[in-house]
């Protein structure tokens, strides 16, 4: 069985966990705790790869790092080329570029959120930050989504990242949750595979960032 290794948080692993659940790939959700040295002093030292990091994905003899590379491997291995905009036989389609663009746009929103949540001045900045750094691009994405079911009509990997971003925003900025976003999130949560995943409680459900480094790591963090 494959293993996805990451901290016991949503972080960079959550879209990958959602993808694995959607594709019904059985996997071990290997969770490292912040307060012990299992990753840093043991597994990282023995990880047979030039660039050991979290998240990692181990599938038999194959070891992959980087949150951008892992989903591509999983999607291709499962012949779901459509999730990255390729033709059904894996050949190039201009849509592939659209998916990469959309992943970039959603990650631009995430980058802004991360800058805030890791800022030691979080408490001071939080109130105005949504209006100055997030809402402009978020509104454009909502407008782009329009009446479509998913960001690019049919489901693509960009939706897995966007869904997790919406959940994060729902805790950080409840005012961000317009009807279009809540409807979209509900639609995503109703997809077979995803439904079972979101209905299962996980230790990290409300933990988005590394507690040691982030000023705000989730709705239960004492910083909020
Ligand atoms: N570019 C990498 C960044 C990975 C990264 O920064 N991982 C952080 C958690 S978000 C970590 O703690 N890595 C473990 C380490 O550095 O040993 C990716 O996208 O996977």
Automatic annotation (TrEMBL):
Domain annotation GST N-terminal: ranges: 1-82
Any Pfam family: GST_N
GO biological process, one term: glutathione metabolic process
Domain GST C-terminal, first and last residues per copy: 92-214
One term of GO molecular function: glutathione transferase activity
Protein origin, superkingdom: Eukaryota
EC number: 2.5.1.18
Keywords: Transferase
Classification via SUPFAM superfamilies: GST C-terminal domain-like, Thioredoxin-like
Signal peptide: none
Catalytic activity: RX + glutathione = an S-substituted glutathione + a halide anion + H(+)
Family per similarity comment: Belongs to the GST superfamily. Mu family.
Function (record text): Conjugation of reduced glutathione to a wide number of exogenous and endogenous hydrophobic electrophiles.
The protein, known as: glutathione transferase
Classification of source organism: Eukaryota, Sar, Alveolata, Ciliophora, Intramacronucleata
């Amino acid at each position: 069985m494959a293993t996805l290794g990451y901290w016991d948080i949503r972080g960079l692993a959550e879209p990958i966990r959602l993808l694995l659940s959607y594709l019904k790939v059985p996997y071990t959700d290997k969770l490292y705790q912040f307060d012990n040295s299992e990753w840093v002093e043991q597994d990282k030292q023995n990880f047979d790869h030039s660039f050991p990091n979290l998240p990692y994905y181990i599938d038999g003899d194959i070891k992959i790092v980087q949150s951008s590379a892992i989903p591509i491997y999983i999607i291709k291995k499962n012949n779901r080329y459509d999730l990255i905009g390729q033709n059904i036989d894996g050949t190039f389609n201009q849509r592939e570029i659209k998916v990469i663009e959309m992943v970039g746009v959603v990650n631009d929103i995430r980058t802004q959120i991360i800058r805030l949540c890791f800022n030691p001045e979080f408490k001071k900045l939080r109130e105005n930050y949504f209006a100055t750094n997030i809402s402009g691009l978020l509104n454009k994405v909502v407008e782009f989504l329009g009446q479509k079911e998913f960001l690019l009509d049919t489901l693509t990997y960009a939706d897995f990242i966007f869904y997790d971003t919406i959940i994060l925003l729902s805790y950080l900025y409840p005012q961000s949750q317009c009807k279009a976003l809540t409807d979209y999130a509900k639609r995503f949560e109703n997809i077979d595979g995803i439904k079972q995943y979101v209905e299962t409680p996980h230790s990290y459900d409300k933990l988005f960032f590394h507690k040691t480094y982030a000023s705000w790591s989730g709705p239960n963090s004492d910083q909020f």
